[in-house]
Amino acid sequence: VALHVHAAIKNEHVSESRKRMTLCRETLKQIYKEFSLCVSEESLAHQRLLLHVRYAYERIFRGSSIDNVLLSEIRERYPGEFTVLKRILMRVGESYELTIPDAEVGYLVLHLLRIQMDLLEDTR
């Protein structure tokens, strides 16, 4: 039912909504696996990252872009996270023939770092 409502709001076919939802879930699954994160689907951290991943893919599908003024600093300070996340997004996006801009990768690195910090605080 939720897919039908979402599709109606977005004025797209249910199959398109399902494809985008699958893309987001697969992306999160790969992020959690690659970064060894244990995040509950009910957690605020998961919901927040899901939202940002969804918005990133929406911009990519629309062909719009963001201006990530912090991109060079993100690459410099977090090269490992940037490289791994870019590889994940490219691998997942390949099946949808998507090109993932570095600005989006950098944007999602910031949100990934936020989740990592939240999880560290939760374990203290």
Counting DSSP E segments of at least 2 residues, the number of strands comes to 0
What is the CA-based Rg, rounded?
15 Å
Shape by Cα distribution: globular
Unreliable segments of 5+ consecutive residues: none
Kindly name the structural category. Answer: mainly alpha
How far apart are the termini?
Answer: 40 Å
Biggest pleated-sheet summary: none
Helical residue percent band:
over 70%
Number of helices: 6
Strand content: under 5%
Summarize the structure.
The protein is mainly α and 124 residues long. Helix content is 76%, strand content 0%. It is globular and about 45 Å long.
Structural summary, described in words:
The protein is mainly alpha-helical and 124 residues long. It is built from 6 helices and no strands. Helix 4 crosses helix 5. The longest helix is centred in the last third of the chain and has 22 residues, at 102-123. The protein is globular and about 45 Å long. The mean pLDDT is 87.
